[in-house]
Design goal:
The protein has 23 helices and eight strands. With 557 residues, it is mostly helical. Among the domains are: 45 residues; 113 residues, no CATH class. β1 and β2 form a beta hairpin.
């Protein structure tokens, strides 16, 4: 009877947590966060183009990687967006829903992962609950981003394997292999993370590998067949994004090496010695190590978060304030109780941080998102271990109650702080990153454009992708006229002309005097005395974000 009651309680709490996590990810999803940044518009228009024509925006037929901004990102998330656009249309909600659903689907998998590894429902529910309300998880779960789909597929592969391997190892291995191969089509991070984890797991569980080598050979063969189409992704244009963000091609690092080498030679160091000591072979390992360690900074974890404004909630880190303590206790507990699981978790977390460490812009909460399920495991085990540690030290009920109360209070205040900044501070402080006002600017321009032969839109207006997305520009027409520029040093290109739109910087001292042209830009780009036809203002601060004017500079009535 007691067991039945406990099982009923676990099931009830399971569904309550899942419903809470679902609500937090779907509530006002189409309008919060305010704004709609260019990557989201790209996912949407590429999916729209594939739905309507079978080609991406540049005419590539059913591609495995989307050319996009020149970064050739894996396309699976974009394909997953197609059904939502066909149902809901080309809008913000349809583009964010696949990401939200992937995040929601991860919640029960967190429970199952922790339960299978610990055998304790209470610990599994704790990890599930922390993930459901985690600011890091919620932030990415409420924006269109492929990292949620990658995390879901990898976690599903692991949990499915844990569920099936004792009954049928071959089925478990094939299922996991297919899901892991699918993850390789979602996000570049997976292409480094998965091989490292597979190698590390094989080393740790070498006896099992030897005993099951025939089944594993079959699984490996199927996995390799599943990823064969990716071979062409590691050559030519498809490597542009990797080249653009990798340390090896960072012009800043190369300039630093040359500067310090020159200084050393000026101070009398022989040329050959200087070339040995000041080279990529010495500087790149130092840079990778430095990038790796940035993931452990208190600023990133607790107070300021991701340095990229689009992945950042002002005044918030990526973790709850109490999590570092729980993670430490979690590691200590696993070291004492399950040494092999301890080492496996270290391998997973190490592998998760490596891809980001190899880039010139680190840390990135998006690229290390795959760590979240395993941090939840450490959180849950750590909290249980912390409570046990206190109970063992004292039998005073008041002390244990104070500990639980302190943790709950910290989490509650942290949650309130996150939502306060997410709802009210982010739209103001990160309005530029979230490109607030761009949609309204594009739609207003669309209303005025028929009266002019040409629309000149400054690059300050965030580019062609917003225009084609918000105006629902016919993909078949765009594919005929779209021409992109050469890439910049980060591997991105630009589309300057299509239809009657010209999207480029206004030259210094430019005279806005073509009466047949509609000009669109930010207020600072226009000369003093300009009278805009329309002004797009920030919905909260009333700040003037964009001006639309014509060659006469006349103000509309």
């Amino acid at each position: 009877m007691v067991t039945v009651m406990r099982l009923t309680k676990v099931k009830s709490l399971f569904w309550i947590i899942l419903l809470l996590g679902t609500f937090l990810r779907l509530w006002q999803l189409g309008i919060i966060p305010q704004g709609f940044y260019s990557d989201e518009a790209l996912y949407g228009y590429e999916a729209y183009s594939l739905l309507k024509t079978g080609n991406d925006q540049f005419g590539n037929h059913l591609p495995l990687s989307i050319a996009g901004f020149g970064d050739y990102r894996p396309a699976l998330y974009i394909y997953a967006t197609i059904p939502f656009i066909s149902i809901f249309g080309l809008n913000e909600l349809a583009i964010r829903l696949p990401s939200a659903i992937a995040s929601i689907a991860t919640i029960p998998l967190i429970y199952y992962l922790i339960y299978k590894l610990t055998g304790k429902p209470k610990i599994a529910l704790t990890g599930m609950f922390i993930f459901a309300i985690s600011p890091w998880s919620l932030y990415f779960g409420r924006m269109a981003h492929e990292t949620n789909l990658m995390t879901l597929l990898i976690l599903l592969a692991i949990t499915l394997f844990l569920r099936l391997y004792k009954k049928n190892f071959l089925t478990a291995g094939i299922s996991a292999g297919i899901l892991l191969s699918g993850a390789l089509y979602t996000y570049h991070t997976a292409r480094i993370f998965i091989p490292i984890v597979l190698i590390g797991t094989a080393i740790l569980y070498w006896q099992t590998v030897r005993a099951k080598r025939k089944q594993l050979l079959i699984c490996g063969a199927i996995f390799c067949i599943s990823i064969l189409p990716l071979v062409r992704e590691f050559q030519g244009e498809a490597l542009s994004r990797i080249r653009g963000i990798s340390i090896w091609n960072d012009p800043g690092l190369i300039a630093q090496i040359n500067e310090q080498r020159g200084m050393a030679q000026t101070n009398g160091m022989p040329g050959l010695t200087a070339r040995i000591f000041y080279s990529k072979l010495t500087f790149i390992p130092l840079r990778i190590t430095g990038n790796f360690l940035t993931h452990f900074s208190s600023s990133f974890l607790l107070t300021h978060g991701d340095p990229n404004g689009i992945y950042n909630v002002p005044n918030n880190g990526i973790l709850f304030w109490v999590e570092p303590v729980l993670i430490i206790f979690g590691f200590i507990s696993l070291w004492k109780q399950n040494r092999k699981l301890f080492w496996w978790l270290l391998v997973v977390l190490f592998a998760a941080l490596i891809p980001d460490s190899l880039t010139r812009v680190a840390p990135s909460s998006a690229r290390i998102h795959i760590t979240l399920p395993f941090i939840m495991l450490l959180d849950a085990v750590g909290l249980s271990s912390l409570i046990y540690f206190v109970r063992r030290g004292t039998k005073e009920f008041a002390v244990i109650f104070i500990l639980k109360f302190a943790v709950i209070t910290l989490l509650t205040v942290n949650i309130w702080w996150f939502w306060q900044n997410y709802l009210y501070t982010l739209p103001i402080q990160n309005s530029r990153a979230w490109q607030i006002g761009v949609k309204e600017m594009v739609l207003q321009t669309q209303l005025l454009a028929p009266n002019y032969k040409k629309v000149w839109m400054s690059r300050e207006c965030w580019g062609w992708i917003h225009v084609v997305f918000h105006t629902k520009f016919a993909p078949q027409d765009f594919q005929k006229v779209a021409r992109h520029s050469v890439r910049n040093d980060l591997g991105f290109w630009w589309v300057s002309d299509f239809g009657n739109y010209h999207l480029e910087w206004f030259p210094p001292g430019f005279k806005f005097n073509e009466t047949s042209t509609l000009y669109v830009g930010i207020p600072q780009e226009f000369p003093t005395g300009t009278k805009p036809l329309a002004i797009i203002k920030h919905p909260i601060t009333n700040q003037e974000l964009f001006w639309i004017t014509n060659g006469t500079g006349e103000k509309s009535l």
